[in-house]
Write a sequence for this structure.
């Protein structure tokens, strides 16, 4: 079932970051790869290289991947200094070898950030994103409590914009690319998705505080508006959402300070 | 021999679920937090179940092998989710959705289950919209719909080409909320490697931490598996690479029956294989068939030619020709087999000859390139990324690929397996799609199971368990199961083999595709049943698993999964061999109508085949559950 | 927590303070430049302007304190945020790659620190007049007969020193560079920006910064070149 190929094969060298565990020091190791087919994906090349390493008695390169079609957000290599490698709007798994030339040395590193500690080789722990989500990345609606779906119309433009933000795959490339390892694009995408939907309004202020606070606590850096994040985002999520997050946060901050104090705060009925 | 009681409630079809909900036992609210429920998996089915059970007050422990629940394979679903909302006023109804799903499944599903699915479909959309899922909208702000594979009404809700992602993120947000609130204890990077059965009831699992290698025991009052499908038994498929059958397979080995494993769905519109290194096949959404026309050259000699050079008169729009009323929109199994037949005739497109054209030139003439881009732009981009070809200029090449597994662990109407206390949801169970699943109905089923079925039906079981009666994790059964897991790990690591795991997975995949793929024969299946056990032996003798057991070790993870796939592959072939009929996703060449359509044998095979493990090296037992169609006539499926 | 507390304790709050103080300082330096450009007019003008400012009395001190507070907050938070940013990536990449971050944006802390050094020097030089007690003595009689301090002479004498002028030119150059990123960045931080008008905004920032630099630099150049001379 395999096509005989007429494509011209070529050779590259992979210079890969190897690190045995979170506490061990890491270093680069070179792996030559011959007979590279331009139609091969970059991760398929890693598969092939790994099979070779295994046969030679070594330990294969650990790398994260799953869907291999740019939607699960698992794959996470920094290739030649750029998270997800050359190309626009793609995840590592969507990178094909035709993007490289014969004789290239391709440097492969993990996503680097204090908030994403390395677990092994190219695999990092991105659970900080989950924690941010748990802090407020939801609309509190118990199963079964929902009104009819068409009872709240959502202007098409809002739904479309919300979808732009919601397309985030949680890969963390934005953090990896940011000079300050800031998670602003991710958080902005989450906050904007929910904040643009009418269903998200009741918890809007609470959500933005909680998510920003958790983001700060996780050890990400601060945004300096350089937009390295959106330049590598596989879903090309715009940094305009960061401006929106800033606005939302400041609005919430001032609103919170000037709100009248409610009797409900005293607890219970009279 | 396992007792397979479907527990289908009596009464008129449309009242069964309502009535059942009224009669089901309830757990006293104050007692709920005394029950611990393990949920394995956080795809649509698992995360919706974990969130909802926690909302009800149960203490939930959720295990996923992924590093985050949001990465479950459900994230990849593109097309949409069905619901009988009839927002389009085009004649849809719960009954019609029920009927379409049942017929699409080639009359091999339980009527009552399918009807319930159609009923709760409407609640799913309400729930997801309330969670903020950004469904596609019309200009007036109301929800948009499209028609999807094999349906004559527009009932599919969607969020661009990322419906599964958005629904999963909705369920994940509900789950995250409950994790934050302390209702769910989340265990990521945690792979379930065994089920613990105590006194005949499922009471816990054994888990390996994929990062540290630590093996741990977890006890609970009930165990829910929502671990997805097993299509990667074919190695190449549209599934995520890590999707696997280990959870259901190990449950099977503990006595849970595995039903209809041979029902595998082959999706007609995937990007063809390009080389030996191939690791996965990418699905091109079925929605493309709404505007694309499928053809192959009429003459063999034209097969290798540039499609642009083939005159209109020399093109065979075979789906339109064979199925005039459904044309390019006929169901998946029908379209896939037709494509295979064309390629078998030597008329396939592309270098490999394994492809058919999906042509948008008519659509571009009608809608303009911009119009086509608006509808399918992202799919065209994906196609371009993978093949470096522009589908605006030249037709896409597509070929069928394994996409979904209708079979799975046997469950009754309450979604409980034949092991009391073990519930199975989503693609991991066998329940609602019969022999073939219609487009946009897996998402519906996963969420129906998790949000709207299990929260009721698990109560019925738990109410019969004394609060606090769950066994401690130091009981012998737990110890034995843990030893079983550690022994397997040790065996792999100590093995003096030479080949990497992937080598065996590829070989298994080729065997499965060749002998148990789109068209199966008695002879082929018998060959497979010889070759697979041999492969299994070779695997255990010659697999090489480098590294250690106490760090992240992806080879070790894969070794366990592939070991299970090899065994499951054998069972799949056995099921295919014994089902001497063709139906939906199971096509036996011996049983076909003259036009190449499935020839069912309702008399002999109008039943569920539920396989029961009999021990290492023993032929498993084939139990049957008759399918009693009370309300619908099993008719011949025709899409002409 | 009170509003200020909240602002000082979160990343976004501190960014907001950076932008707000940056905005104030931006306004100040713009106004300051416009005031200084009066050196090209007859000495009467700039000396009258200086007198007007000095006669604000307590008001002037309030403005000075406010500006000082802005500088302190801006600098303090700049250092804090920059250190946090460094710490957020303990291990650097083997290959450094920049997609689109401008050089200006990457050297904000450094340009800022030079500007800070200049501000301190500048205050010592022209405001406190350390080492130049005579500048506090020189007087100038306005047309209406009021005797005021002679700022014009102070500026001309001050910039006649080549070293001072060069430092001044470098500092305003770096301040312009600081603002080349700062102006656009500030609006993003305040949430008052989107891609639709980013391009226009960027063009404005570039034009502003060049203008700011050239006009500022014109003063010492004019003094050194003899275009602006000591008045009779
Ligand atoms: C490319 C593609 C497109 C599709 N498009 C559509 C569509 O448009 N419409 C539609 O209705 N259906 C579609 N489907 C089918 C549908 O996506 C799946 O059937 C469905 O999402 C399965 O959901 P699930 O919750 O059952 O399992 P999954 O989403 O597969 O989740 C499985 C979960 O179980 C966990 N798990 C598995 N094993 C273990 C273990 N041993 N230990 C711990 N955790 C474990 C995983 O971590 C994961 O969280 C598509 C499928 C594919 C492949
Ligand atoms: C008169 C002098 C100054 C003016 C007019 C000025 C102006 C600005 C402006 C407008 C910003 C943008 C704020 C934002 O990004 O939201 C900024 C940022 C910054 N400034 Fe200043 N600044 C001055 C002095 C200084 C000084 C003395 C320092 C000393 C370290 C400094 C360091 C910084 C830093 C580090 C940033 C952050 C950069 C970023 O977020 O990208 N600035 N400044
Ligand atoms: S915003 Fe983009 S880069 Fe960041 S996590 Fe989401 S998809 Fe990845
Ligand atoms: S592997 Fe899923 S996004 Fe790359």
């Amino acid at each position: 079932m395999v096509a005989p190929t007429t494509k011209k094969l070529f050779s590259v060298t992979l210079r890969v970051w190897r690190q045995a565990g979170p506490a061990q020091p890491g270093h680069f190791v070179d792996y030559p790869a011959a007979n590279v087919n331009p139609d091969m994906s970059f991760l398929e090349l890693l598969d092939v290289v790994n099979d070779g390493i295994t046969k030679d008695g070594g330990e294969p390169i650990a790398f994260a991947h799953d869907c291999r079609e740019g939607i699960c957000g698992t794959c996470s290599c920094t290739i030649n200094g750029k998270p997800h490698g050359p190309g626009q709007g793609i995840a590592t798994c969507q990178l094909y070898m035709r993007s490289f030339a014969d004789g290239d040395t391709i440097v492969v590193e993990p996503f680097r950030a204090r908030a994403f500690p390395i677990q092994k080789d190219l695999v990092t722990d991105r659970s900080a994103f989950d924690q941010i989500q748990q802090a407020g990345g939801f609309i509190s609606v118990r199963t079964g409590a929902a009104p009819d779906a068409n009872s709240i119309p959502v202007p098409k433009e809002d739904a479309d914009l919300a979808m732009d933000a919601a397309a985030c795959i949680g890969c963390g490339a934005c953090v990896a690319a940011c000079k300050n390892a800031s998670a602003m694009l991710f958080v902005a995408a989450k906050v904007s998705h929910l904040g643009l939907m009418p269903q998200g309004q009741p918890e809007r202020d609470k959500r933005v505080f909680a998510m920003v606070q958790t983001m700060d606590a996780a050890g990400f850096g601060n945004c300096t508006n350089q937009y390295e994040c959106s330049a590598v985002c596989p879903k090309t999520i715009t940094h305009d959402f960061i401006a929106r997050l800033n606005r939302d946060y400041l609005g919430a901050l001032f609103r919170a300070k000037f709100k009248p104090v409610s009797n409900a705060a005293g607890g219970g009925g009279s | 021999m396992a007792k397979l009681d479907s527990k289908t409630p009596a009464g008129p079809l449309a009242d069964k679920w309502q009535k059942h909900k009224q009669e089901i036992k309830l757990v006293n609210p104050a007692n709920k937090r005394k029950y611990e429920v393990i949920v394995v998996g956080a795809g649509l089915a698992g995360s919706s179940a974990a969130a909802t059970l926690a909302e009800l007050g149960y203490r939930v422990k959720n295990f996923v092998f992924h590093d985050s629940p949001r990465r479950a394979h459900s994230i990849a679903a593109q097309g949409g989710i069905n619901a009988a909302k009839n927002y389009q006023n085009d004649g849809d109804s719960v009954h019609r959705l029920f009927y379409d799903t049942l017929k699409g499944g080639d009359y091999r599903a339980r009527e009552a289950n399918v009807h319930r699915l159609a009923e709760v479909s409407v609640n799913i959309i309400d729930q997801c919209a309330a969670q903020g899922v950004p469904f596609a909208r019309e200009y007036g702000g109301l929800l948009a719909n499209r028609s999807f594979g094999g349906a004559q009404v527009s009932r599919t809700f969607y969020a661009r080409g990322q419906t599964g992602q958005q629904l999963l993120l909705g369920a994940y947000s509900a789950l995250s909320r409950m994790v934050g609130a302390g209702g769910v204890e989340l265990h990521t990077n945690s792979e379930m490697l065994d089920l613990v059965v105590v006194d005949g009831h499922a009471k816990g699992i054994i888990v390996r931490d994929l990062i540290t290698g630590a093996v741990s025991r977890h006890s609970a009052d009930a165990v829910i598996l929502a671990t997805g499908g097993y299509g990667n038994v074919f190695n190449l498929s549209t599934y995520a690479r890590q999707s696997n059958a280990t959870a259901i397979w190990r449950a099977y080995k503990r006595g849970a029956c595995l039903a209809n494993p041979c029902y595998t769905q082959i999706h007609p519109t995937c990007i063809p294989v390009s080389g030996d290194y191939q690791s996965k096949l990418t699905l091109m959404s079925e929605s493309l068939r709404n505007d694309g026309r499928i053809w192959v050259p009429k003459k063999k000699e034209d097969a290798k030619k540039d499609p642009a050079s083939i005159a209109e008169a020399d093109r065979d729009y075979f789906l339109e020709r064979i199925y005039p009323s459904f044309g390019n929109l006929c169901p998946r199994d029908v379209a896939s087999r037709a494509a295979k037949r064309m390629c078998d005739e030597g008329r396939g497109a592309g270098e490999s000859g394994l492809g058919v054209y999906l042509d948008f030139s008519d659509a571009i003439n009608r809608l303009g390139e911009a119009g086509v881009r608006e509808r399918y732009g992202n799919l065209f981009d994906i196609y371009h990324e993978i093949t470096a070809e522009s589908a605006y200029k030249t037709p896409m090449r597509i070929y069928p690929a394994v996409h979904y597994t209708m079979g799975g662990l046997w469950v009754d109407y309450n979604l409980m397996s034949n092991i009391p206390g073990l519930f199975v949801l989503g693609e991991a169970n066998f329940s609602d799609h019969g022999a073939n699943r219609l487009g946009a109905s897996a998402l519906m089923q996963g969420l129906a199971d998790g949000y709207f079925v299990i929260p009721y039906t698990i109560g019925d079981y738990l109410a019969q368990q004394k609060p606090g009666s769950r066994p401690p994790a130091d009981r012998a059964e737990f110890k034995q199961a843990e030893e079983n897991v550690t022994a397997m790990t040790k065996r792999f690591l100590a093995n003096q083999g030479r080949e990497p795991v992937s080598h065996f997975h590829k070989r298994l995949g080729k065997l499965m595709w060749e002998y148990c793929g789109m068209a199966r024969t008695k002879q082929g299946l018998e060959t497979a049943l010889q070759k697979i056990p041999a492969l299994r032996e070779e695997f255990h003798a010659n697999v090489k698993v480098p590294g250690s057991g106490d760090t992240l070790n992806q080879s070790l993870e894969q070794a366990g999964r592939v070991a299970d796939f090899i065994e499951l592959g054998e069972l799949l072939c056995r099921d295919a061999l014994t089902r001497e009929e063709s139906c939906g996703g199971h096509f036996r060449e011996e049983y076909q109508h003259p036009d190449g359509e499935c020839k069912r044998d309702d008399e002999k095979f109008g039943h569920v085949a539920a396989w029961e493990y009999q021990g290492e090296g023993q032929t498993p037992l084939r139990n049957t559950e008759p399918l009693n169609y009370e309300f619908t006539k099993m008719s011949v499926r025709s899409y002409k | 927590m009170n509003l200020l507390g909240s602002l000082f304790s979160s990343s976004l709050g501190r960014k907001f303070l950076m932008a707000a103080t940056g905005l104030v300082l931006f306004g100040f330096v713009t106004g300051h430049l416009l005031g200084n450009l009066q050196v090209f007019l007859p000495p009467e003008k700039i000396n009258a302007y200086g007198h007007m400012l000095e006669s604000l009395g307590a008001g002037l001190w309030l403005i000075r304190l406010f500006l000082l507070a802005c500088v302190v907050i801006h600098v303090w938070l700049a250092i804090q945020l920059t250190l946090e940013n460094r710490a957020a990536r303990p291990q650097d990449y083997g290959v450094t790659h920049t997609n689109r971050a401008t050089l200006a944006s990457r050297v904000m802390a450094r340009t800022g620190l030079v500007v800070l050094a200049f501000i301190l020097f500048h205050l010592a030089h022209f405001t406190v007049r350390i080492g130049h007690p005579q500048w506090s003595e020189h007087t100038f009689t306005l047309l209406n007969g009021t005797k005021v301090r002679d700022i014009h002479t102070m500026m001309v004498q001050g910039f006649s020193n080549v070293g001072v002028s060069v430092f001044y030119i470098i500092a305003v150059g770096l301040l312009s560079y600081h603002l080349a990123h700062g102006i656009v960045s500030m609006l993003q931080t305040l949430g008052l920006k989107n891609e639709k008008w980013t391009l226009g905004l960027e063009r404005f920032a570039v034009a502003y910064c060049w203008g700011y630099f050239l006009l500022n630099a014109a003063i010492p150049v004019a003094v050194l070149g003899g275009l602006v001379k000591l008045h009779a």
